[in-house]
Amino acid sequence: VIESPFLNRRLRSHTILGDDDLRLLQELPASIRNVPAAETIISEGTRQADCCIILRGLVCRSKTTDIGKRQILSFHIPGDIPDLQSLLLPQLDHDITALSDATIGLVRHVDLAALIDANRRIATVLWRECLTEAAVNREWIVNVGRRSGEAKLAHMVAELKRRMEAVGLAEGDTFPFPATQADIADALGLTTVHVNRILRVLRARRVLDIRHREVVIHDWPKLVAIAGFRDNYLHAIGA
Amino acid sequence: VIESPFLNRRLRSHTILGDDDLRLLQELPASIRNVPAAETIISEGTRQADCCIILRGLVCRSKTTDIGKRQILSFHIPGDIPDLQSLLLPQLDHDITALSDATIGLVRHVDLAALIDANRRIATVLWRECLTEAAVNREWIVNVGRRSGEAKLAHMVAELKRRMEAVGLAEGDTFPFPATQADIADALGLTTVHVNRILRVLRARRVLDIRHREVVIHDWPKLVAIAGFRDNYLHAIGA
DNA sequence: CGTCGGGTTGAGGGTGATCAAAGTTTGTGG
DNA sequence: CCACAAACTTTGATCACCCTCAACCCGACG
User: Fold this and answer.
1) Which of A16, B7, B143, B182 could make an SS bond with B79 (beta carbons 3.0 to 4.6 A apart)?
2) Dihedral sign of CA atoms B122, B123, B128, B129 in order
3) Per-residue pLDDT at A122 exceeds 90
């Protein structure tokens, strides 16, 4: 049985779900697993028998090119189900890795599939979750493809802030973010050195700071301006 | 009623669909629309009442940043349904534009939703289509984030080749591709000038050529090597 | 035959990469 | 609680890939 206030908050934003539906989801048999930082939870090519729900910690999806360069595709925070797709696509096409110590809940495909078969509203909500995630991925393409280093970093932080807020994990201007500068570089398509320099500038301009595994936002309007951030693509997440 | 050999071929690769299911899809009431090159089919923020299926031509999804830079998120070829998501997400978060003269089929959301409600297999297949598309988007992130200019272009061509083959539109080493160099640049996160120079090199090395609205692949193994192309992420598309 | 969209080429500049080394924090074991 | 190692951050110097700006060319089409 899964008890996650974060997941509840996420799913509750889909207004079509009732308390009874949420209860059905929570009552799915689940096993809990603790994962140490830097451990690969599921690796590319694996055939899975269950989906994982993040209960604690920071997780990412990533791919590595033939010449060994890593690209982080997305960050995942408590309440996310980063491998929901495995329910319908047999092979995972990327790695799922813990960036900090994390706790995940594992729900068997057969149980989840049975619930989806039985409950139309839950099926719709999970499908919509996949679509929202795809929208976030698309904005990420714009981020790595068409923004300056400074704007990339600012946009990433702005998005994380909104997503953290949506599950109740951002307090004031601060939210936990235990990624290293190397991780951030791999997410933005930059190098560690350059990320460090961008951070220095943003710190000096009193826009934001990332240190001690936390993000502190000093000036949200300035951050939004630098990023060119518009949250329409977050759909239900931001609602 | 939609008659598209390309869509059929796409959907048939999902082995769970029978001929009767395909017939149900084909018999949905649909209207056909011709779109001239460069016309925006649906623009960001629109609330839609129908989904469009591409019957002919090249279409793309794109976003434009606050400072006016366009990023093409994906190319769409006959058989694709680029706005399937609109069925569940009310607002479109990007533009859908025709890059060449195109023909699209429009199916009303209500009709499609009714069919999904009535037919579990069709629902599964359409959900899976969304997931496959998300997988393609993720590989695109890697492409713009972590590959050299030459590798980006090569990877794009390799992917298009496989997708064109899957719907029967690639003949031998050639397939139609009516995008301009400016379009390619916006897809890869480069400039027109640089795309032109990369093309010159790939042409000189007898790897590939893009001209007269067509791609010609001279040396597939070399192309795959330059791109670092692995097709596992195409899932059902490439099967 | 003129216009226009798109392709091609050149020169010069800047963002971000690479390489290298010195700090600083974090974590572990004595 | 300290000592040490490992991981991460910071900084400097140099370099290259790709951008910018600016022409010019070419083929399609009226």
Assistant:
1) B7
2) positive
3) yes
